Amino acid sequence: MRVTQSMLSNNMLRNLSESYRKLGKYQDQITTGKKVNRPSDDPVVVMKGIGYRTELNKVQQFSRNIGEAYNWLDTTDDTLDKIGSALQRARELMVQASSDTATPEDRLQINSELQQLREHIQSLANTKIGNKYIFSGTKTTTPPFDNGYPEPIDDAFFKGIEIEVFSGIQIQINTTPIQLLKDINLMFEDINTSMDKESAGKLSSFLERIDNVMDKILTIRADIGARQNRIELMDERLQSQEVIATKQMSENEDVDYEKAITNLITQESIHRAALSTGARIVQPTLVDFLR
Amino acid sequence: MRSTFMGLEASKRGLYTQQSALYTTGHNIANANTEGYSRQRVNMEPTLGYPGTGLNAPKVAGFIGTGVKASSVQRIRDAFVDRQYRQETNKLGYWETKSKSISQLEDILNEPSDYGLAKALDGFWNSLQDLHVHPEDGGARTVVVQRAIAVADSFHYIYNSIQQLRENAANEIGITLRDINSVLEQIAHLNYQIQSVEPNGYMPNDLYDARDKLLDQLSTYIPIELEYEKSGGNALAIAEGSVRVFLKLSDGTKVKLVDGKDFAQLRNSGASTSDGLTPTDSVEGFKIVRVDEFGNETVVDNNWNVDNSAQIDINQFSNLGKLKSLVDSYGYIDINGNQKGLFPENLEKINRLAKEFAEAFNNLHQSGTDLDGNADVEFFVINNSTDTEITAGNIYVSNTIINSPNKIAASDSTPGNAEPGNGKNALALANLKFQTLAGLSGVSIQSYFEGFVGQLGVDGQQAERLTYNAQTLQQSVSERRSSISSVSLDEEMTNMIAFQQAYNANARMITAIDETLDKIINGMGRVGL
Predict the structure, then answer these.
(1) pLDDT tens-digit profile of A42-87?
(2) Is A69 in contact with A163 (CB distance < 8 Å)?
(3) In a domain? residue A131
(4) What is the pLDDT of residue B86?
(5) Could you tell me the CATH number of the domain that includes residue A132?
(6) What residues does each domain of chain B span?
(7) Which of B461, B494, B497 lies nearest to residue A43, judging by beta carbons?
(8) Which residue among B103, B454, B488 sits closest to A5, beta carbon to beta carbon?
(9) What backbone torsions phi and psi does residue B50 show, to the nearest 5 degrees?
(10) Which of A268, A276, B72, B425 is most buried, judging by how many CB atoms fall within 10 Å of its CB?
(11) Strand, helix or coil for residue B41
């Protein structure tokens, strides 16, 4: 085949620009840290990439949701614990009051402390997380007790608040002991009206009522504890999921630096070789040797 | 009896001919870097021997050579390689333009990245998740509004950018047609010049080169077929003649574009064009017009018979050349009367995504209740009154929602009964993204978009690969062509020396004859003087 100068120089130019193109590609890969930069580089990787991003984003969001779930359950548990202590104290007072040795004055004093406890429990029932009342079902802006009087309640007060902690898995983060709280309130009211009228024997029947509600509170706390366990498990699962999703995303689209840098260096030496060959080939013609 | 001065004459012819060859070598060297130039060669042939034949020819021994003549100057070129080159150029023109269009679309979608529509949808999903956890929180609601605006903005950006690309493609179609028309006119003009030169027995090599270059250019735009017609008169057998250029359609039909010094012009057919060239709506086809000297246009059919209704349907074009590729990107009407094309189809896809997303979202949103327990509020609206359907271009977050984020229906309570802490509807709205929608052929918004990007990637990859293939083939043909036609300086230098030496030798020959003549004229008959 006949080869001419213009063919050589055209080839050299083409090879050089191809070489620059490859250098550019490796440069892109190394500076962005990604194997692909546009869908046509590798459609499958890009499609998967969009999927993994969404997956990772989901896992991160669920972790955030779980934080909120912890917050609710811990606060609820703590509040119920305090209500329990208050009831415990109320029980002790009732034991004193129901003793035959207690004088009416003693009973009035005990009652005033009991009514303080009632207010304490009411304020505990009005506990808020942020600006949300935790025992109001989904009517989180309405307190269960307003100035010591129970709010009229409807179905919404018994509704659970469920948040998603995993694709398709929802966990109820609130508890709805509104009836119980009202019962407790009512009980204290009954105590208030009966304290100075009833006999010691009659008053001791309140002990049973207190025990009864304390039992119920314990049952609720057991349920909260079980949910806390479940959320902890979920949390661990999410954490490992996040690691896995990040790893998958990285394996899918991140550049293998050793490989990319080796490629770059190889390409660089090829480029140098191309340049020096070019310089050698294009220069001399017969003209240089004729006189 | 031969002439006394015959030797001088033969050597003089030698001088002239070698000089012509030397000058042609000079011409070659001068054009060593001229694009489209083919090296030229002086065809030398010996002149007829002496004496000539005939009854009254002198009877002498031998048939003595009388020297050389330059019979013609020919360019070195292989028409077959040209043909191959143009075929590959056709393909390259098509795929290169297609690949460019797709990569522009890819730039707009900007995936995979942290800024595209996928990211905006993810952000919107996050904000709805947060809202479902904190439904009574004004902050979470404002974030939902802002993220929704970001989603709408992403849709607008994609929509407007694709529209912009379409407009650019329309302009490029106009410019390409203008270019094609100008090339056709130039070819016809060159035909005219060639037709005037050839009958005089000359080879207008440089005109041929110019014409071939124009034909190369034309073949990047449209698939062409050529026929050559020899010139009459005293034209040489190797003269190429004038060329007839045809547009070749997919069924093999040939549409005449240039015939000798006459040429036709391409026009965009149909009413949807601003200046006869630049389309303003999907291309239906092209028509051929002849323009007279007053600028009046007559529509003609494939063989230039006047036919006002003649037009070449776009579906008759093969997928070759830049023009068809641009039309494919811009949009055209297919055989069934539907709008097709890269940009319109992708626009339609993104519109469909926006519409199905907005409608499903609105449905769900209207079924939920807001912070005050009211239901039936639209979330996404069309922002201009003329459109009846939501598209990616007109989707907006309703002003009611923007002005009072409390109207976002996060709750699924019964209407009239406000449940501020109920975030169930917000969760349903969030998870709409992963729900299959009948309007999206049974896939979710997420996978529809993934599929959309994936399809584009696959098409882009194919276009790139085919561009690369066509480029490689075109390059190897181009290499062959260079191998045949391009100027080699070494070769020209060698020739230069050969011709120079031949010239010198002829001059020396003249001196030798001069000396012999000197002997006869000045030395003879003077014996002993």
Answers:
(1) 888 888 888 888 889 999 999 999 999 999 999 999 999 999 999 9
(2) yes
(3) yes
(4) 94
(5) 1.20.1330.10
(6) 6-76+488-523, 165-340
(7) B461
(8) B488
(9) -110, 140
(10) B425
(11) strand
